[in-house]
Design brief:
- The protein has 131 residues and is of the alpha+beta class.
- It has a domain of 84 residues: GMP Synthetase, Chain A, domain 3, CATH 3.30.300.
- It is built from three helices and six strands.
- The strands form two sheets. Strands 3, 4, 5 and 6 form a four-stranded mixed β-sheet that branches.
- Strand 4 and strand 5 form a beta hairpin.
- Helix 1 crosses helix 3.
- The longest helix is centred in the last third of the chain and has 20 residues.
- The chain is elongated, with a radius of gyration of 17 Å.
Amino acid sequence: MTHDDSPAGEVPAIPTETGDRPVVAEDVAAAYIADAVRCIPGVAALHGSHWKTLSGRKRPEPSTKGVVVRSVAPSVIEIDVHVKVAWGTVIPDLAREVDEVLARKMRGLLDLDVRKTTLYVDEVDAPPEPA
């Protein structure tokens, strides 16, 4: 069965021509990335595209909204992450934390190298209500 003939719903793991190492689908990497980013203090939520909200169709939000993964070489990826941050978060510190966490997680879980991580802060949570 070739890659194009695989049944719907299966995530392909295709052997590379240079060895036995499988290629990890970008959607699989995006799922791990989304879970890792949600656990980082200061990230209030992943931020999906505003263009999708303009559609008349109602679809459930994918768990990987706000994450874009690009394969740039065998086992090397670049990541874009769109987030809503909590009020008072120091964004440069958050960007460093996201970069470090994702590089460590992708190397450890999927044996992928992260060439570049770009953090987009699309929204900031409102300040907390005074008590």
